[in-house]
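DUF7455 domain-containing protein
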Amino acid sequence: MTQITESAPSVVDAPALTAADRCDSCGAQAYVRVTLANGELMFCAHHGKKYQEKLAAVASNWHDESARLSEARA
């Protein structure tokens, strides 16, 4: 589970991601939405984790629904 700290982007109440939202890196279903000064990026759980450290410095908001993947297995 990712912990958001004061120095990291804040988590906001954003519309839920749907199956129509796709990862900008690979096209898989998006579970992470990153808001930047000039737009948004969406990532699957894998790419969200991969780029989180780099994007944390420039993102204004980080919306992560990757926990839904664990809920689906339960």
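thats it. The beta strands are 32-36, 39-43, 61-64. The chain is about 25% helix and 20% strand. bye
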